[in-house]
Amino acid sequence: MKLKLSALALLLIVITSSAFIAPLVKPVIYKVDLEKSTLTWAAKKVTGGHNGTVNLQSGSLQFEGKKLNGGNFVINMATIKDADKSAKLEGHLKADDFFGVDKFATSTFVIKKVTSGTGNQVNITGDLTIKGITNPITFPAAVVWNADGSVTATADKIVVDRTKFGIKFRSKGMFPDIGDKMIYDDFELSIKLIAKK
């Protein structure tokens, strides 16, 4: 009788404990739609600025339920375009002074941490790799679920210090006497990822 009571008590403990353990949610991968997603850039110098686009090569976002918790994207650096269609500028951006596309054909971003903000806002921290150099960056983004089951992740202003990736051409920090030929160290990226299962 004592043995039966002990076994019953043990069974009750196991059942009660398991009721408080949250079920594991299997991560789901959403593939980035390369045709619908966009990546734009903007850079400034003393006498003006330039902006344009660059194509994504691949990408994915990882979710647990509706919560973003991982992902990555690859940028095809050979597709850098200037909005003013300057072939000279595009060639210079692809050269070693800037992105060295012949040697470094792609840049990558890998999500390392996502923290919740208000509403559909999140803060994303990850590793950005340009010209083979990796640095952490953090930026705000919005994650919106669409009626067709796809998801849109948008970051309107990702600020990148190019000198941290070895891009020092006409940097005032590197060349203080450069005057009005100076190009600002920071450039901005704006990304819109549309992804689906």
What labels describe this entry?
signal, Lipocalin, mainly beta
Beta-strand share of residues: over 45%
CATH architecture assignment: Beta Barrel
Spatial shape: elongated
The topology string of helices and strands comes to HEEEEHEEEEE
CATH topology group = Lipocalin
DSSP strand count = 9
Poorly predicted runs are none
| End-to-end C-alpha gap | 56 Å
Annotated CATH homologous superfamily: Lipid/polyisoprenoid-binding, YceI-like
> Which structural class is indicated by helix and strand composition?
mainly beta
Major sheet summary line: 9 strands, antiparallel
How confident overall, as mean pLDDT? 88
Number of domains: 1
Classified by CATH, the class is Mainly Beta
| Helical stretch tally | 2
Helix content: 10-25%
Radius of gyration: 24 Å
Keywords: Signal
Domain Lipid/polyisoprenoid-binding YceI-like: 29-196
Signal peptide: 1-21
Organism: Pedobacter heparinus (strain ATCC 13125 / DSM 2366 / CIP 104194 / JCM 7457 / NBRC 12017 / NCIMB 9290 / NRRL B-14731 / HIM 762-3)
